[in-house]
Amino acid sequence: MREVTLSTTPTPEALADLALGDIVYLDGLMYTAREGVYMRALEEKANVPMELPSQSAANFHCSPAARINPDGSFEMGAVTATASFRFAKWLPDWLALSGAKLVIGKGGMRSTDYKEYFVPNGAIYLSTVGYGTGALLGRGVENVEAVHWHEELGLAQAMWVLKCKRMGPFIVASDMQGNCLFERENERISKNLHRVYEGTRPATLKRFGETDDKSEELI
Amino acid sequence: MIPISLIQKTAETLMDKAAIEIPTDYLDGLKRAAAVEDGDLSSFVLKAMLENYEAAKQDRRAMCGDTGTPRWYVKMGNEAQIQGGPVALETALRRATANATNGVPLRPNRVHPLWRTDHNNNVGIGAPEIEYGYEPDGDWIDLITVHKGGLFGTDYRMLFPSDGIQGIKRFFLDSLVAFGKRGLACQPAIIGIGLGGCKDTCMVLGKRAACLRVVGDRNVDPRIAALEQEFTELGNSIGMGAMGFVGKSMVIDTHIEVGYCHTGAMQMSVHAFCLSSRRAVARVFADGRVEYRTDPNWFTDYQRRETVDWDLPQPAEVQP
Ligand code: SF4
């Protein structure tokens, strides 16, 4: 497998060079933003307290295990991504507003999301590995540069600005054509599912919202 | 009498251990899975996980940035006496949870479901959960903390006696495939299955089966023990590995716990205890000794008893 070191303000060429399944380590500034930040910036139209994307084009779907000390300094422990598909509602506007080129999180998005608004914005998706590699990722954080909006949003939803040094590993989960690594893997797995299921008995009660079609994409 | 300050101090140490030190039974299980995994992406993920546990211990930082929802299982010997009584005990555990959230640090995950109020300390209405059990002998108290992660790794289905083992298998597979796609529940995991009880007790049994039994432990009922082994193999034959990539490591071990249920029903719940299988245990004795371990040893013969009475030693004066 190929390993690549990438800047958090990557060039279009560097992004175009990445292939699904590549392992990436990041250098530069990265910020955390999830529903709290999106709602504040997009719905309440608050001014984003950073220069985006010149300072950072890397949006991490994460809440760190961290604290703010009484003297205002920060203590950062482990950092782990949170599931990204829940943010699909805000991401098209956010990518346009922030100019983010790297969306980093857990589980990826659907290929339709990639094709509709990642590709037009020149952005790709990087997945954390594991996903619980919080201690390794924490090591890649050289410094916590700032935390914004923690009073309004709480520590878990705040916008943490992290200085990364060879932070990783991450896996390239979408490319410049909008292909999706997870869908590729799901397809391969679904092909064999009928064999494992042989002889089993489906639920007697059919509830709303349940599916028996194992080839359907479930996020 | 067990001093309350000792309980709080021990509880704080446990919070730290649970968040940082992966229990060896799970670690060894994961190493075995890594040794046989041949999917290239899945193998890479398992290797990174093994490095991650080392990094966590070396740096004394939480193994995962999502430190789950801390909870307590408390078990008391029949003769245990706690300074200040049960209210003091609960206060000590709540205080330890708050202190450790700031100290380790852990992620303040707990918020009000509607108003999203965050006390930044993992304490609030009903949080942390504190559950109790008792044992016939002893003047000790067992403190067990579990920091369960995985929003996506739990499900319930109402089955019926006619569904039989094939219905149970089906729900097991349905759950694992659903949890496993894109790896949202962070496999390979310890899978706990609750069978029977009522809906709420079925969920409780399954969660305890996942979180309170160690890898390699088998149910005392030999037929259930055989099912546990069969289900582990079944889960690992789905063709899916870590993060939902092609592979064969989904399940590190399966634990099944049962409870008597309504004659017309066969409730089933499935719970995945994720890559961060965080549990830590200490026994605190009346004389001030503290013994740390990682095996909760929750499911004793007494916990699984089927009979009305349990033979207690009779006090001398009532014996004939
Ligand atoms: S489910 Fe994954 S992200 Fe959540 S606590 Fe477990 S290892 Fe961490």
List the helices and strands and how they pair.
The complex is a heterodimer of chains A (219) and B (320).
Chain A: E1 3-7, H1 12-16, E2 23-32, H2 35-43, E3 58-60, E4 66-68, E5 74-76, H3 91-98, E6 102-105, H4 111-118, E7 124-128, H5 134-139, E8 141-148, H6 150-153, E9 159-172, H7 181-197
Chain B: H1 4-20, H2 24-36, H3 40-59, E1 69-77, H4 85-103, E2 130-135, E3 141-148, E4 154-159, H5 164-180, E5 189-196, H6 199-211, H7 222-235, E6 251-259, E7 266-273, E8 279-284, E9 290-293
Helix pairs in contact in B: 1-4, 2-3
Iron/sulfur cluster sits between chains B (64, 66, 68, 149-150, 186, 274-276) and A (80, 131-132).
- Please name the CATH architecture of chain A: Alpha-Beta Barrel
Q: Give the number of DSSP strands of chain A.
A: 9
The CATH H-level superfamily of chain A is Fe-S hydro-lyase, tartrate dehydratase beta-type, catalytic domain
Total domains of chain A: 1
Sheet of most strands of chain A: 5 strands, mixed, barrel
| Quaternary state of the chains | heterodimer
Shape of chain B: globular
> What is the residue-mean pLDDT of chain A, rounded to a whole number?
92
Main interface: chain pair and counts? A-B, 57 and 68 residues
